[in-house]
Structures are given as C-alpha cells and as structure tokens.
Amino acid sequence: MKPSQKILVIDDDEDIGEFVSATAQAMGFDCTTTTNAKAFLESLTPDTTLIVLDLLMPEMDGVEVLRLLGEQKCKAGIVLMSGVGKHLRETAEQLGQILGLSIVGHLQKPFRLAELEDVLAKGAGPVISPIVLRGAQFTQNEELRGAIERNSFVLHYQPLIDIATGGITGVEALVRWQHPERGLIFPDNFISRAEELGLIDELGWLVINRGMSEVRQFANGDGKVPMLSLNASVYSFHDLKFPDMLVSIAEKNGVSPATVTIEITESGLIEELWRTLDILTRLRMKQIKLSIDDFGTGYASMQQLKNIPATELKIDRSFVMDMESSEKDRIMVRKTIELGHELGMSVVAEGVETREQLDLLRLYDCDCAQGYFFSRPLPPAELVSWLKTYRSGLVH
Ligand code: C2E
Ligand code: CA
Ligand code: CA
Fold it and tell me: Are 190 and 220 in contact (CB under 8 A)?
C-alpha cells in the first residue's frame, strides 16, 4: 500500500535533514530532504502533506519560504524548526497564520528523537492510503448526517460570572454529540465538518431549540433566568430569516430575546462581515445580544470593530492562559478590556482557571469570567445543583 503522507524537509544543515528524513521513513512516511530553497520549491508537489522548515538558512530564509508558500496557497501542514529564541518563532508562526498557512508544530534545536516523532505523528497523521481515508470520511459524514436527523446531541452549560459581585450573569451552551459507540464527542471534532457538508444550519437550530427549552431551569429563587449564550456559525447568518426565527423560538419557550446572546467568532465575522452586517443589525433591533468570540485570534481591524454592532467581547483563552507568566499577554488582555469598554461593550474573559488570573482580571476591570476555576461545562441537571450550591455560598 502506497503511503499517502508525503513529507518535505528543508534545512541547510544536511545532518539535520537526514536525521528528520530517517525518522520519518522509519515511521512509514515518504520523505524528501532538500538543503536549499530552489530544490525545495522544485520538490514541492500538491500532494505534499507536511513541510518541515528551517527558519534560519543562508541564501533564502524560512520567512521568505513562508511567503512563497502563502502565495501558492499551500495546504500542507508546516512544522517550523529553529535554533533561535521563542520570539522569532512566534513571529514566524503569526506570519504563517496571516498568510493562511497551517502551522502545525515547531521544533526547537537541538531536539530529541521523541520530540521529532511526536511532531511528525501529530502533523502528518497516521499512514493511511487515500482510498481508506476517503472511505472513513464518507462513513463519518453519513454518521453525522444521521445524528442530525435523529438529534443525537446534548448541551452542556458553563456559567459566566460577574467578577465584581460574584453573581451568575449567564450560561453558555456548548454542544456535544452523543455517539452510540464512541461516547460524547466534542464540537471541535464535528462543527467544521457540519459546515463543509452544509449541515450547520440544521445543527444550529437543534442547539437553539434545545437551549431555549432548557434555560429556564437555571433561574434563581426569584425566577430570574440567566442570559443564554449560544454559539452560531457565520454560515447560518446567510439566511435573512435567522433573526425572526430565533425570536419566535424564544417566544415559544417564554424566553425574552433580550436575555439571549449569539456568539460568533472574530475570524468568522471578519471573513463574512459585509454579507452579515444586515443580519447582525436586525438581531440587535430585536434586542438579541451579540458577542465577538475568541477575540484576539481573528485580526479584526479597528474600522471593522467599530462597525460591528456587538454588545460583548470575549477574550480568547489563549491570552488568559499565559497571563500570569507573560507580560505581553497581560498587556493584550488589559488593552482588549479597555478597547471593549471604549466601544461600549462588556468584556468576558474565557478559560479562567486560577485565582491569580481572576485577580488580575478584576484589577483590569474585566466584567465577566468563565472557566474551569468556577466550573466545567455541565449537563443541565448537574448545572442546576452547581448553581444551587454556588448561590447559597454567595448569600452566606
Ligand atoms: P468556545 O465558544 O470558545 O467555547 C469555549 C470552549 O472552551 C469550550 O470547549 C469549553 O469547554 C472550553 N473551556 C471553558 N473553560 C475552560 C478553561 O478554563 N480551560 C480550558 N482549557 N478550556 C475551557 P468545547 O465545548 O470543546 O467547544 C469548543 C468550541 O466549539 C467552542 O469554543 C465553539 O466555538 C464551538 N461550539 C460549541 N458549541 C457550538 C454550537 O452549538 N455551535 C457552533 N457553531 N459552535 C459550537
Ligand atoms: Ca463561545
Ligand atoms: Ca471562545
């Protein structure tokens, strides 16, 4: 069986090239090594699945190679290799992302065999023939189609906490696929597939209906229902009827539209901004709130941000995660909070896992926090008892 995974290595140091190549071949990959950019570009074919690229080379450096790959709209995964500091590598990684490349890993020289094997295995995946791969994808697509027809999905909910008062402001619904053999499958494993297959609208409505029918059980003693945050794919925003349908589902379930937030990722929004601006505006006219999710990862310009009628900004957890150790991330978080406030939005930090992170966020005047520090996303019944315990703790 011919292996489907083709790896191409470029490093001016022949010994390193050979080491990578011998390891890749021992793992069953088809691997070619080059020592200069010209040979590299000649060896690059559309079926190359993984590129291992040295960032520092004498005649044409890795950054220039990245630019060329970006121009060619290269689809291969890219592993960056460097002997230089973390900073240059991070800059190159960002450049790669801006160019639309898929950076799947990095190796800091000198690296150990185990590290190399790990990066290759993750970057190139298992050695599977294209036919087997297509067969498996077909089965998975049909399974997903069936799951949507039968509605084999459940929602878990994660609370959002007001940092100043400690009160519950809302809950975010996160979808899980309840697979008969494989158990709970997380959204990162099926949302983009549903988008590709044109099934995301249907899945989106399942989530919206379920969320609206479940949220009232999270009310507090006075009957006040927390805000319900629902994630939506930007592709669902092509349907002009989206706002009306959303409102009618809310009304049917006795949920006020003003207590519903639609979260949409920054990257999705920017990609489709001009086509979706009318839907966003209509949602706001119907009192539905709008949140920019994963903020900081999507490269929105100031001009674009100003034009989005959002009510909330959610700082991506990658910035929150390293806040304690990274001065740069602290600056990012602090400035994002200021920016959000100046644009009239409330700001939520996601992925809050420690008290130190929470204390910093309070210091920076962040409005809300969400993360494992308070609670993981929970099935509805478990969230009900979590809320009970949490609320009683607040009172006493
Ligand atoms: P997201 O909207 O950014 O959701 C937050 C993700 O971070 C969730 O992952 C949640 O479990 C995780 N998380 C929460 N707190 C922490 C923490 O303290 N530390 C860490 N490390 N992680 C934390 P999940 O549930 O796997 O969802 C992944 C993504 O899938 C979501 O990211 C969202 O973009 C997407 N998604 C989820 N449900 C839906 C849906 O119904 N529709 C659409 N279109 N996308 C959805
Ligand atoms: Ca979200
Ligand atoms: Ca997010």
Answer: no
